[in-house]
Design a protein that fits this description.
The protein has about 90 residues and is mostly helical. It has helices at about 5-15, 20-25, 30-45, 60-85, and strands at about 50, 55. It contains four helices and two strands; from the N terminus they run H-H-H-E-E-H. Belongs to the LysR transcriptional regulatory family.
Length: about 90
Amino acid sequence: MSLTQIQSFVAVAEEGHVGRAAHRLHLTQPPLSRHILALEDELGAPLFERTPRGMRLLPAGEAFLQHARRILSEVDAAVHTVRGVVGGPSK
């Protein structure tokens, strides 16, 4: 599981649509869809219901979303801490 897959998952979950999530992440739809499919394959469960109007979280996706947001928050905090130690710019 990669950080990119987790970021992609959160964006699609929040946007409810692959196209809008791809735009938000400055990606095209095909690689974003591949990130989601690879994540679902690794987890062994579908995370979204695909509908003609977009993507809706399934119960497994709802459960994973909390953890995914926490992971991204922890990564941001770690980057901020390291940059503070070395005197680099913080986000």
